[in-house]
Design goal:
This protein folds into 2 domains: about 1-115 and about 195-400, Divalent-metal-dependent TIM barrel enzymes (TIM Barrel); about 120-185, no CATH class. It has helices at about 15-20, 40-55, 75-80, 85-100, 135-145, 150-155, 160-170, 175-185, 195-205, 210-230, 255-265, 280, 290-295, 330-350, 380-395; strands spanning about 1-5, 25-30, 65-70, 105-110, 120-125, 130-135, 235-240, 270-275, 300-305, 305-310, 320, 355-360. It is of the alpha/beta class and about 400 residues long. The chain binds D-mannose. D-mannose binds next to strand 4. D-mannose (DNO) binds near residues 108, 116, 187 and 304.
Length: about 400
Amino acid sequence: MRQTWRWFGPADPVSIDDIVQAGVQGVVTALHHVPTGHIWTPEEIRARQDAIATMSDGAPSGLAWEVVESLPVSEAIKTQTGDWRAHVEAWIASMRNLHAAGIRVICYNFMPVLDWTRTDLAWRRPTGARCMRFDLVDFAAFDMHILQRPAAATDTPEALRDAAARRFAEMTEDRKAQLAANVVFGLPGAAERLSMGDVRDLLASYAPVTDPVLRRHFHDFLEQVAPVAQKLGMRLCCHPDDPPFPLLGLPRIMSTEADYVERLAAVDLPANGVTLCSGSLGARPDNDLPGMMRRLGDRVHFLHLRNVRRDEDSIPTSFFEDEHLAGETDMVALIDAVLSEEARRRAEGRADTTIPMRPDHGQDILDDIGRGGQPGYPAIGRLKGLAELRGVEAALSRSHGVTA
Ligand code: DNO
């Protein structure tokens, strides 16, 4: 695996100097300041590459921008309204500019309205560490009583409705405000901070977009972008839904292995690939991560390794982000499957034998607490996760004929 690290740009409190010391091989970043639907220009891309290449004292960092996460797909593209065709053109133009700058892997997602969703961004673990959590009761309380989505009550099972009403009645005003902010936190580093009114308007714009409609829109998008990517030698990789079950009455089409199989077959080109995020997919007990790596491995262009612990084996369920080797995904088996895939690619003589991986998220531990980093992206918690994953890889590599 190629060890990479997500960086949110010059404002990220985890600096390039820190990343160099983490000992990674490459950087994952995005131009979060460019509004969705606009072109990423060669100048902006170059400025970010320069920032990555240089440490604070001017010394070379030895690092380069290797993976884009994310090149955002606008709501207009997902709903096929307004300027959507121009947005697809802009997406392709950005891809061409990234290619010209030497970048080959682009991660994106097709989640309506909200990117990843949590109810707690700093949930206390018994050790005092902090992590992210998705709590179904809190989420239903948000949906029914804070957002007051008209269909929320009918969409929520009765037992959950009652629990949510009780939870809401006990909430302080501060907790209500915090819960609303946490749920709509959206993309880290993104300019968009949504009000409840904005969320209601966005949800309303999805009224005609059922699951089959969103699937069709996704396939239309893939038919435009994947052949261009293929010609250029770019690898596109779609991130799964997080959490991987329906929320707020919105369509959800990238939550399971079957979803991936369908989307990969829709445009059957190597450039149309997968971001295998073990943390997002792992919130469903029916997603067998090592098996998905074995079966979809050929098209896996990017790995997010993290682990969650579910409260129950139901879908949906509450869950929290556990330590990298401590959640319910068998991380050793998953890395073993990754190494088998890399060995298979080597034997085939493929150019992309080493799959970029990043330690995804991390708990806030030690000096992370109070440092004010992006939720889920602390320096030390991620470094601990990376060190553990690296250890597993080093140990398993021998049996795959590689000396780490
Ligand atoms: C959360 C991330 C996601 C991811 C996007 C990819 O921490 O894994 O925000 O970057 O969904 O498009």
